[in-house]
Design a protein that fits this description.
D-amino Acid Aminotransferase, Chain A, domain 1; 6-stranded antiparallel β-sheet; D-amino Acid Aminotransferase, Chain A, domain 2; 28% helix; 9-stranded mixed β-sheet; homodimer; 273 residues; 33% strand
């Protein structure tokens, strides 16, 4: 079945959803997005994602051409038009058709892509490649994925699944997800320099019931010495990371605390959505 | 007169030149470009720009879907279809319609935008705002202008015209141009960490006739202490920079060596194109 997207006020079949090539998101990478999943027609943590989309837009000086209520209606309609058990929605806002090709236009271009997706296997341990890099404007969910896509070739050579960014010896995040270290009964995650993930936020909320939780600076060294390591995001929930740069983390296998948090998260997600 | 662009094999009126919103240049900022000017129908330093476009594509693992000879023909046709005394051509190559929304597609999207443009006034001294930043993949002319566009609001508040990037006390470049320091009879420009500008290259070629020329590390401190400072690029040729962060450079006025190089460059450009 052909997908239906939303673009600047219209619901359109995927193949008709087009922007002029002078859009500032395309020509100058000036734009933001957010992404969330819908399960059996129900958007998951929708309000969190809309809050963050709003915040990204604000930081970038872009205006979302729809009220919160209109956004909810667009999302509901896209879910109706794209009936998949697992649907991913990507909201994108760009600098529009800039008069001088550089400064954002008065009017942004706004679209929503709707595609079925699959979760990453929560039992398959991932292999991360460490990369010295600080993502620009880390708090903004921007369109900039230049470096991790550039590094795909190197990553594949190493047999790695994703990157782990660090700078000055401190880790921040992966290319599209947050990172948590488990050491003893403590759960540790970076406090700065990364995107504030929605999954991350909810894990911090409920993990406190059973673990000590620390949001602070996390060194690459202690990450390599972790008992368990996992990564979180809207397409992943919680997925173990079992190797960095070909070195095993902990036992080199998905660990019990990661597995337990994953089970807890499934319950939490159902209860709160 | 409506502009005519080139897009994936076709010459199209501007308003029909559209890409699907799933293009990887738009969704993930994965793409490159090059830009050059045509004066009275004659492309300026065309082969240099095509060499660099080729190099950027190679570094990013993208394939240009046209031979060098085909590119020359497309350019010639666009010049014919867009008869302006001063025409800017922008060649853009993106990661195409990625099957997984992240890894570049087999086939890139390729387009060329043709627009009339105006030179910056070579007598108006510019005001730069210094910004600690290292552009990612500095040798690639990528689509990533996230930071300088984000900083436009701050720049306007300060009354500045553009940014000057530095890192660890060393300057690299401005947002869309290279930078040269004049100190006594020596012309100095950064050797690393910046895009290898075509104008920069030609100035280094011919300036050696009359000045000592140094390509090396350049500190922000010695930039602030310069006798003269100027910036170079395809939309600028050579334009003086007379202030950084509201502090005057040298006399705070366009200097004699900058003016002389500009005159020499006009002659050089005519002779070599």
């Amino acid at each position: 079945m052909a997908a239906t997207f939303f673009l600047n006020g219209e619901f359109l079949p995927e193949e008709q959803a087009k922007l002029n090539i002078t859009d500032l998101g395309l020509l100058r990478a000036y734009g933001i997005f957010d992404f969330f999943r819908c399960i059996d027609g129900k958007p998951i943590f929708q309000e969190d994602h809309l809050d963050r989309f709003n915040r990204s837009a604000e930081l970038m000086g872009l205006n979302i051409p729809a009220s919160r209520e209109q956004l909810r209606e667009i999302i509901a309609e896209l879910i109706r038009l794209n009936p998949h058990a697992l649907l991913g929605l990507k909201l994108v806002l760009t600098g529009g058709y800039s008069p001088d090709g550089f400064a954002p236009a008065e009017q942004s271009n706004f679209f929503v892509i709707a595609k079925p997706f699959e979760f990453k296997d929560p039992e398959k341990g991932l292999h991360f490649m460490s990369v010295e890099h600080q993502r620009q404007l880390a708090e903004v969910k921007s369109l900039d994925y230049l470096l991790p896509i550039y590094l795909l070739r190197k990553q594949r050579e190493m047999g790695a699944d994703d990157v782990l960014y660090y700078e000055n010896g401190l880790i921040t995040e992966s290319s599209r997800s947050n990172v948590f270290v488990v050491k003893g009964d403590t759960l540790i995650t970076p406090a700065e320099g990364m995107l504030r993930g929605i999954t991350r936020k909810h894990i911090l909320n409920f993990a406190q019931r059973e673990l000590k939780v620390e949001e602070r600076e996390v060194t690459l060294e202690e990450t390599l010495q972790a008992d368990e390591l996992f990564t979180t995001g809207s397409t992943k929930r919680i997925v173990p990371v079992t190797k960095i740069d070909n070195r095993p983390i902990g036992s080199g296998q998905p660990g019990p605390i990661t597995r337990q948090l994953y089970e807890r998260f499934l319950t939490y997600e159902k209860e709160t959505n």
